[in-house]
Design goal:
Elements (H helix, E strand, L loop, with lengths): L4 E6 L14 E2 L27 E7 L9 E8 L14 E8 L37 E2 L7 E2 L2 H11 L23 E7 L12 H13 L11 H7 L9 H13 L5 E3 L31 E7 L4 H4 L8 E7 L9 E8 L7
Helix pairs in contact: 2-4
Length: 348
């Protein structure tokens, strides 16, 4: 079992977040690793509303073997409020992709991050001008700009109609907030050891310090959470939750309140509340669809990420991602497993 690493969102010039530099990132358009066999539009379509899911984030997480020399995990989410169900992850898709050191797209030499960023490694497939995913449909007028769906084409038309037929590149278009989330680099750091905390401080004192930092605006992006969200995840609420589990969750958050990712391959999720009352039905982890092997926990998305997305339709407690324990050899992209855990208000 690996040690816990924490992921934090940091602003970075988007040019450095392309696939050439194997990024971990939140929002923007996906930086595809495998470039020829991209996920189909059907794979990224919400089963409930049929809309295309939005790219949420990706983590670069290689293994120590040849076929996993490069490895990225991608997450997509439907943004329609009617598709967001408590303790159900149907609106979320997780995909794994990997490549060996010697591959058809990338140099065997580590990319240099000095001077000006180089352009992305292009895909032989057409990409959607609105979201960056596989785009089987072309603009009926100019045939030069492509889209994954009619919905994205309609959303993008206000920008494209002024340049339809010109030589403008898709990189010149502005991101559409209803399709793309704000873009950040995800920087991974070691989890601070609790043994390094100041001696004599119990849980109550630590949480009091967290609240004081929050009041002073020193908890980073978490300070932008609405009062309702703070009450839901970190405040004293009237909800009936498992006190022991919830206290432990808040204690861990108080150590690094800006964390948006917790990564521990082969470890266990940091649950936000009682598992038996929330996600027990999801705990029968499906086996890898490619090799039939067992999956293991790899990382979780924390509720703090919601403050960066600027989308009030989305909500979760945690998103726990499970991947093939062998990270078996694949072609293109393979679906992995995710558990969505929420806190529910109970009627007294």
């Amino acid at each position: 079992m690996d040690d816990v690493e924490l992921g934090f969102a940091e602003e970075r010039d988007a040019a450095w977040l392309s696939n050439r530099y194997f990024p971990s990132k939140l929002g923007g358009q996906p930086a595809w690793l495998e470039l020829k066999e991209l996920p189909s539009t059907q794979e990224l379509q919400c089963n409930k509303c049929q809309d295309q899911k939005s790219f949420l984030c990706q983590l670069y997480a290689s293994y120590n073997d040849d076929h996993n020399f490069h490895r990225s995990i991608y997450m997509f989410v439907c943004r329609n409020k009617s598709c967001q169900e408590a303790n159900q992850a149907d609106a979320i898709t997780v995909l794994r992709s990997q490549l060996s050191l010697k591959n058809a797209y990338y140099s065997e030499e580590e990319p240099l991050e000095d001077g000006e960023a180089l352009p992305p490694i292009p895909s032989p497939k057409k990409l959607c001008a609105a979201c960056g995913c596989h785009a089987p449909h072309a603009c009926s007028r100019c045939k030069a700009v492509h889209y994954c769906s009619s919905g994205h084409q309609r959303a993008h038309w206000a920008q494209h109609k002024a340049t339809c037929g010109s030589t403008i590149t898709t990189e010149a278009y502005k991101p559409l907030a209803e399709i793309e989330f704000p873009e950040f680099e995800i920087v991974m750091e070691a989890n601070p050891e609790e043994s390094n905390a100041e001696p004599g401080k119990d849980e109550k004192e630590r949480l009091a310090e967290f609240k004081q930092l929050e009041a002073q605006g020193k908890t980073g992006d978490l300070s932008n959470v609405s009062e309702a969200e703070m009450d839901k995840y970190f405040g004293q609420t009237a909800m009936t939750v498992d006190d022991k589990i919830f206290r432990h969750f808040k204690k861990q958050i108080s150590l690094e309140p800006e964390q948006i990712i917790r990564y521990q391959r082969g470890g266990n999720p940091l649950w936000i509340t009682n598992v038996a009352e929330t996600v027990e039905s999801q705990l029968e982890i499906e086996q890898c669809p490619n090799c039939g092997g067992e999956r293991q926990f790899e990382f979780q998305i924390m509720p703090q990420m919601l403050t960066l997305l600027k989308d009030e339709q989305l909500d979760w407690g945690i998103l726990a991602v499970y991947t093939c324990s062998k990270s078996c050899p694949i072609q293109g992209y393979v679906k992995e497993y995710v558990i969505k855990q929420d806190i529910l208000e109970t009627q007294e």
